[in-house]
């Protein structure tokens, strides 16, 4: 019994997928941060290197101009006296802005590059180490001297200086004139000396003392010798990521090297850790949301299923108006849909108690309790507990449904149960109305049938009796000569008997009519039954002519009653015995007193009345149907009348069976005797049983 | 001459009615003769086989079977048997059911005086 509906959970990104996405984002961010932590971009390094190279070039050019100015100052002649040379150089150095501070200018007197001792220097403070330094002793400087002489311009080289440390020395050749000879040979021959520029150890060739990026390494290198550095001081060759560009220094292998020694910071790991935590949080939140959504969808599905059950229960309950059909289908349906283990339905009896009429599954305890103690359930039920829902009709409890589910019931399931129980109560109400209506129709049909039978019976009874009276009278009225005395007496007796039977019938009909109008009144007086009973039997002798009558009457039995009523009852009982038992059978009439009651038995030995019919024979118009009685004259009034009469006398009349199987009518009435007991002579029958 | 006398089988569970019918028929003295009496359906069928009556005067309400039931059994054996249904309560339904079986006429018991005439009219060929 699967419920199909249109609800479905539209799934978004799964929590795991979201987590992976965020984690990937964190990784990317971490990579980006890491990348941002790296040395400057290659292009930036190239730009720094280029600007550095340009600065070094400019510095060398300025130094070249300074050397040229120095040559000019001394007139290209180093042979002048030391004082003259010093004076010329001093004025030069102090008046030339391009000369960097702490430079040392010197003059070498030589005609050969084999020896080139510095003769004089300015400032004189540097003379202690510089004067006398022979440049030719250093291969790099020797080569510098040769190149300078041949080029005629200023050149630069790096080598061990006067103080033994790496020193940059720039030179320009002096040819004894203010102009430079045109060719190399002339220059070699005209060489008289050199002006020398000795750069101090701290000279940076225009490099910034500390670049904006503290992790940046800027280095000017002459082949393998570091000329100047800026920024971080790092030994060794630059990494592959660094930038190396040459500087246009003739005859030298000067290069600018730029790179960054920045190490990755912890940011990327922080970013990564934060990202992963974020991923975890996102995953958790997404999972929680997912669970909430799933729960909402599940609740909605359950609700839809429950609503479907309510919607289905209505038509289901309308399929039949018989409780026996409704209850099993209903119980099975709700048990299936609400996953109930046990369902039981109880209905209220006329006595106001609940009695179980249907159960499905094992209901441990019957709900045979007081209906007034029931109340509508609310909220859910605990696992395995019982939920009892009263079935209300117009505010009155008409029954109860009890259900149990092993996993328990949610509040909405209980609400659904209440809703379908309301439908059930309405259906049961309709079923009850229909049943009442059907019973009423059946009763009315029975009454109608009984009245039809009554009319037929009365007609038959009246016509047969009247025909007999009329017929025999006609025979007597004819030629009387043909009738002997015996026959005439016989006819007259038959007329009398039929007339009496007719009289009884008419009395019955009149009493019945009076009962219909509730017009019968009784006047209670002591009645001497011991005297009355034999008299009535005697009066009925013509009717009982074909039967053997036995009258056993205890003396002085007096009842408190109404004479005509008691007489009528006895006549009716005797008349019945005569009519419904075969001729020749015995009829016993017995009268006894029992304590404060009197008991009269009229017993026959005919076919008797089956046990299930013994109460019905006292119903108005009812006639026990068998072959023997169907054709028998009777209208179904006598016994009903007898019972009503006796009831008015505070007595009872019942029918049982004689030992031979015949009918035994027992009439009990109040005794008129004051003394309650021991006044009845023998024999004394036991109550309810025929005296022996 | 004896063969011309219609023989009548009187069937009624009431002794008074049997006696009365017998007396009425005899009193009529119109060549009618009661050739048999029966007080039940079963006895009627038994007596019918014995006496072979020209006509059966048959009561409807009897202890063991109705007159119609007895008539049906008799007519199934001899379809031209003449039968008069003599009932205290004759209505159109009873007449229709009787006619359906082949019963010539239905006479109410209040019409006791008409029995001899009916026997002559319907009981003889």
Structure description:
- The complex is a heterodimer of chains A (692) and B (125).
- Chain A has 14 helices and 20 strands.
- By secondary structure, chain A is α+β, with helices and mostly antiparallel strands.
- Chain A is rod-shaped, with a radius of gyration of 72 Å.
- The N terminus and C terminus of chain A are likely disordered.
- Chain B has 125 residues and is of the alpha/beta class.
- Chain B is built from five helices and five strands; from the N terminus they run βαβαβαβαβα.
- The two termini of chain B are 15 Å apart.
- At the A-B interface, α9 and α13 of A face α1 of B.
Please provide the count of β strands of chain B. 5
**Low-pLDDT runs of chain B:** none
Q: Which two chains touch over the largest interface?
A: A-B, 24 and 22 residues
Judged by helices, strands and strand pairing, the structural class of chain A is alpha+beta
* Residue runs with pLDDT of under 50 for 5 or more positions of chain A: 1-9, 627-631, 675-692
Largest sheet of chain A: 5 strands, antiparallel
Helix-and-strand structural type of chain B:
alpha/beta
Q: What share of the residues of chain A does DSSP label as strand, in percent? A: 15-25%
Q: Whole-number radius of gyration of chain B?
A: 13 Å
Average pLDDT taken over every residue of chain A: 81
Q: How many helix segments of chain A? A: 14
Question: Helix and strand succession of chain B?
Answer: EHEHEHEHEH
Inertia-based shape of chain B:
globular
Q: How far apart are the termini of chain A?
A: 71 Å
- Sheet with most strands: strand arrangement of chain A: 2-1-5-4-3
How many helices of chain B? The count is: 5
Strand count, sense and barrel status of the largest sheet of chain B are:
5 strands, parallel
For this structure, the quaternary state is: heterodimer
For the biggest β-sheet of chain B, the strand order reads 2-1-3-4-5
């Amino acid at each position: 019994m699967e419920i199909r509906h249109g609800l479905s959970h539209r799934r978004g990104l799964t929590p795991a997928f979201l987590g992976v996405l965020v984690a990937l984002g964190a990784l990317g961010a971490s990579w980006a941060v890491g990348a941002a932590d790296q040395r400057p971009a290659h292009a930036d390094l190239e730009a720094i290197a280029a600007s550095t190279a340009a600065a070094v070039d400019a510095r060398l050019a300025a130094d070249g101009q300074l050397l040229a100015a120095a040559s000019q100052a001394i007139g290209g002649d180093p042979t002048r006296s030391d004082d003259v040379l010093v004076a010329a150089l001093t004025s030069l150095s102090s008046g030339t802005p391009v000369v960097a501070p702490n430079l040392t200018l010197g003059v070498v007197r030589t005609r050969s590059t084999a020896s080139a001792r510095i003769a004089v220097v300015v400032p004189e403070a540097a003379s202690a180490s510089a004067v006398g330094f022979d440049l030719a002793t250093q291969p790099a400087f020797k080569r510098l001297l040769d190149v300078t002489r041949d080029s005629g311009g200023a050149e630069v080289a790096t080598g061990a200086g006067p103080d033994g440390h790496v020193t940059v020395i720039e030179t320009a050749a002096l040819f004894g004139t203010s102009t430079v000879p045109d060719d190399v040979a002339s220059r070699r021959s005209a060489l008289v000396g050199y002006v020398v520029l000795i750069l101090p150890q701290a000279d940076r060739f225009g490099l910034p003392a500390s670049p904006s990026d503290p992790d940046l390494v800027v280095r000017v290198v002459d082949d393998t010798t570091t000329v100047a550095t800026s920024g971080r001081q790092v030994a060794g060759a630059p990494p592959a990521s660094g930038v190396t560009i040459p500087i246009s220094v003739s005859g030298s292998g000067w290069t600018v090297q730029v790179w960054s020694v920045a190490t990755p910071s912890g940011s990327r790991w922080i970013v990564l850790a934060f990202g992963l935590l974020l991923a975890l949080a996102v995953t958790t939140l997404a999972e929680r949301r997912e669970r909430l959504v799933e729960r909402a969808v599940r609740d909605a599905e359950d609700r839809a299923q429950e609503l479907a059950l309510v919607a289905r229960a209505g038509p289901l309950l309308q399929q039949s108006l018989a409780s026996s059909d409704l209850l099993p289908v209903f119980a099975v349906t709700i048990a299936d849909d609400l996953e109930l283990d046990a369902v039981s339905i109880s209905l209220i009896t006329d006595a106001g108690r609940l009695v179980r009429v249907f159960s499905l599954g094992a209901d441990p305890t019957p709900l045979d309790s007081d209906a007034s103690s029931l109340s509508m359930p609310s909220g859910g039920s605990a696992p395995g507990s019982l939920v009892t829902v009263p079935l209300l009709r117009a505010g009155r409890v008409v029954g109860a449904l009890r259900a149990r589910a092993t996993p328990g019931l949610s509040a909405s399931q209980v609400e659904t149960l209440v809703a379908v129980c309301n439908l059930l109560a309405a259906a049961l109400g309709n079923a009850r109305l229909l049943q009442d209506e059907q019973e009423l129709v059946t009763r009315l049909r029975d009454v109608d049938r009984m009245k039809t039978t009554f009319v037929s019976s009365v007609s038959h009874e009246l016509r047969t009796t009247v025909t007999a009276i009329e017929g025999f009278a006609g025979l007597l009225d004819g030629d009387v000569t043909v009738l002997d005395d015996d026959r005439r007496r016989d006819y007259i007796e038959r007329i009398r008997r039929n007339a009496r039977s007719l009289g009884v019938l008419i009395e019955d009909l009149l009493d019945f009519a009076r009962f219909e109008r509730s017009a019968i009144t009784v006047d209670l007086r002591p009645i001497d039954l011991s005297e009355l009973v034999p008299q009535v039997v005697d009066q009925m002798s013509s009717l009982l002519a074909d039967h053997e009558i036995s009258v056993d009457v205890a003396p002085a039995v007096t009842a408190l009653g109404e004479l005509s009523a008691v007489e009528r009852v006895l006549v009716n009982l005797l008349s019945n015995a005569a009519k419904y038992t075969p001729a020749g059978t015995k009829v016993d009439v017995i009268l006894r007193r029992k304590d404060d009651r009197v008991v009269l038995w009229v017993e026959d030995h005919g076919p008797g009345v089956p046990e299930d019919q013994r109460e019905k024979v006292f119903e108005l118009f009812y006639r026990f149907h068998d072959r023997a009685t169907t054709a028998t004259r009777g209208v179904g009034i006598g016994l009903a009348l007898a019972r009503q009469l006796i009831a008015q006398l505070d007595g009872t009349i019942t029918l049982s069976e004689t030992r031979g199987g015949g009918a035994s009518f027992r009439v009990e009435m109040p005794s008129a005797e004051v003394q309650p007991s021991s006044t009845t002579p023998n024999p004394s029958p036991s109550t309810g049983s025929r005296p022996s | 001459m004896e063969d011309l006398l219609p023989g009548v089988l009187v069937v009624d569970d009431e002794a008074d009615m049997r006696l009365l019918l017998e007396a009425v028929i005899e009193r009529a003295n119109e060549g009618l003769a009661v050739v048999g009496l029966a007080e039940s359906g079963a006895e009627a069928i038994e007596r019918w086989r014995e006496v072979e009556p020209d006509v059966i005067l048959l009561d409807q309400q009897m202890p063991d079977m109705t007159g119609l039931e007895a008539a049906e059994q008799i007519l199934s054996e001899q379809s031209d048997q003449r039968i008069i249904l003599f009932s205290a309560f004759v209505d159109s339904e009873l007449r229709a059911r009787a006619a359906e079986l082949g019963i010539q006429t239905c006479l109410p018991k209040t019409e006791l005086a008409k029995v001899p005439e009916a026997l002559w009219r319907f009981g003889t060929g």
